[in-house]
Amino acid sequence: MRLTRTRLCSLLVALYCLFSIYAAYHVFFGRRRRAPAATSRGSRKAAAQAKERRGREQSALESEEWNPWEVDEKNEQQRRIKTNLQILNKSTKEKIEHSVQIWGKAAIGLYLWEHIFEGTLDPTDVTAQWREGQSVVGRTHYSFITGPAVVPGYFSIDVDNVVLVLNGREKAKIFHATQWLLYTQNLMQTQKLRHLAVVLLGNEHCDNDWIMQFLRRNRGFVDLLFITYDSPWINGVDVLQWPLGVATWQPQETNESLKNYQDALLQSDLTLCPVGVNTECYRIYEACSYGSIPVVEDVMTAGHCGNTSHHHSAPLQLLKAMGAPFIFIKNWKELPAILEKEKTLSLQEKIQRRKMLLQWYQHFKTELKWKFTNILESSFFMNNKG
After folding, report:
1. Are 224 and 164 within 8 A, CB to CB?
2. What would the DSSP string read from start to end of 263-295?
3. Is the distance from CB of 320 to CB of 294 less than 8 angstroms?
């Protein structure tokens, strides 16, 4: 009897040990073996969700685009531009000391931003209601906004220093420009802005008296005035000459007509630039853009434009001061002799001349950018020190 009890107890102990070993095996080894499977299932589920999400985003994108095959390339370009700007801003963040915003309310604002600053605009669609761009020059961050949606009082002001680009060529434009100046005056009085410069598409007769009251020298609030044409006010201190630049292509023009004009400039060794209301015209700069030598009628037109205390070579003082390699004539009777001289030039000489004009024009724009930014920074920031 005692032997039977001993055997029974031994059996129970053996069964208990076997159960403990089995339980321990599943606890320590069973979960490890199943874990990769669970992870694999989780990865497949996450991948499926990501794929579904991308599908939804792609469907939404395609439904919003008018022509996805045409627009995707532009969108990709804009994404690259934004990425580059983010990298640039990140790398220069510690060095940036100042910020200036340019409000483009005249077509010459596009020449300033796209040709002088060589900046880009997002979106690229010229009919967009709001377009903007960013650029860093030295230790100053410049931003640019333009479009019909840029309206006084309807966009946020997050900068202290502004360059306002205005059109003052005719009465209707002057009224619109005055409203902008009164708006900025209010911003200055409420200390939302500290400094203001104006780039003005001036009147072709240099009748710009309406803006004089706003200049700081006349107890106004405009620190600097950059003005087109040979204004007698130009002094190189607070009133500076600004180039007319290239024309903004009108909506009624077609892509074909634009291409025909560009092809004509490319194929022309010379571009004739007779005077109009003013000696300076868009064609001068458009010819330079394509390496066609401008033949400029170098005579003063009616009005108040002329020599100033700073320059004595009107008309086209700015271009002449920058050494423009143009052909200047006083009378179109000189043209036949010029054309005869053209016949004596070899193809290589004409190619070299075209290259030199393109190089000069690029230097011209680079110099303008340097002078523009340096004058702004000196006026806006240097005077604040001490």
Report:
1. no
2. HHHHH-SEEEE--SSSS--HHHHHHHHTTPEEE
3. no
Q: List the domain boundaries for the chain.
A: 98-244, 255-366
* Alpha helical stretches, state H, the chain: 2-25, 31-64, 68-92, 108-110, 171-189, 255-267, 282-289, 317-321, 335-343, 347-380
> What is the chain's length?
386
Q: Give the model's pLDDT for residue 55.
A: 47
Q: How far is CA 345 from CA 96, 194, 293, in A?
A: 51, 56, 14
The string of pLDDT tens digits covering residues 163-200 is: 999 999 999 999 999 999 999 999 999 999 999 999 99
Helix (H) or strand (E) holding 22: helix 2-25
Residue 376 to residue 100: CA distance in whole angstroms: 9
Phi, psi (deg, nearest 5) at residue 342: -60, -35
Q: Residue 167 in contact with residue 176, Cβ under 8 Å?
A: yes
Q: Judge whether 225 and 193 are in contact, CB under 8 Å.
A: no
pLDDT at 322 > cutoff 90? yes
Per-residue pLDDT band at 258 (split at 50, 70, 90): confident
For domain 98-244, give the CATH number: 3.40.50
Q: pTM of the prediction? A: 0.75
Q: Are strands 131-137 and 293-297 parallel, antiparallel or unpaired?
A: unpaired
Structural Rg of the chain based on CA atoms? 34
From CA 123, how far away is CA 132, in angstroms rounded? Answer: 8
* Phi then psi dihedrals of residue 169, to 5 deg: -75, -35
